[in-house]
């Protein structure tokens, strides 16, 4: 069971996590990186899995793609999740494939009622096949394709229709708020917080005053830490994961940022305990 603070597991520090007194409560992996893995690196992963809860955060589902679902991939995924007894599987509310060609990027969906219905049907197929609820992440995006309804309405409708859960990426909310000119706190207050299964927090690049780039390659900015604390005040004790995918520093540096995440979670928990 995941709780409190977690950390994205990366190969660069796969063999370092037992060398420090600070141990994350849980780790998150991309299942695609492990489904066909073998050898010593898989043995190390299996040791970590035996000692820590693991959540899976996928990259290949492309739930908003016009292509049909890839049931060969879903079969491999289900076998992996079942074998390692992993119940938490999240993906992105986006698309990354069309005509069988993968873009290797997470592209936004048009915020329309038809797209919300289309995606909802595919989500329910995935949930039926995997025998698990799907957890969907709000992505960062830089172009609005179509906005018949708001992003907020789009996400809330899909969660209500499918019974899926939300992986609330706080940094993505902040990045989108700056880039598209809305209040991130209003967005968070009006998202379906009762459907939030866990959260992500990561760093971004201040490219221009009104253009932020979600890189996952920088330290978390102070404004994003503040937004996380605001969000935890509303959600209560929801697990939070620190992501670092690019420009990965030595593990000891990552642990320093992880300690800050722990301190914010503890601060909010103590505040709620006094109420």
Helix-strand blueprint:
Layout: E1 5-8, E2 26-29, H1 39-51, E3 54-57, H2 71-83, E4 89-92, E5 95-98, E6 101-107, H3 113-130, E7 135-137, H4 151-162, E8 165-169, H5 170-180, H6 184-190, E9 196-201, E10 205-208, E11 211-213, H7 222-235, E12 240-242, H8 251-274
Parallel strand pairs: 1-2, 1-12, 2-3, 3-4, 4-7, 7-8, 8-9, 9-12
Antiparallel strand pairs: 5-6, 10-11
Helix pairs in contact: 3-4, 6-7, 7-8
Walk me through this protein's architecture.
The protein has 275 residues and is α/β, with parallel strands linked by helices. The protein has one domain: TIM Barrel (Alpha-Beta Barrel), CATH 3.20.20. The chain has 8 helices and 12 strands. The protein has helices at residues 39-51, 71-83, 113-130, 151-162, 170-180, 184-190, 222-235, 251-274; strands spanning 5-8, 26-29, 54-57, 89-92, 95-98, 101-107, 135-137, 165-169, 196-201, 205-208, 211-213, 240-242. The strands form 3 sheets. It has an 8-stranded parallel β-barrel with strand order 1-2-3-4-7-8-9-12. Helix 6 (184-190) runs parallel beside helix 7 and helix 7 runs parallel beside helix 8 (251-274). It is globular and about 50 Å long. The model has no long low-confidence stretch (mean pLDDT 95).
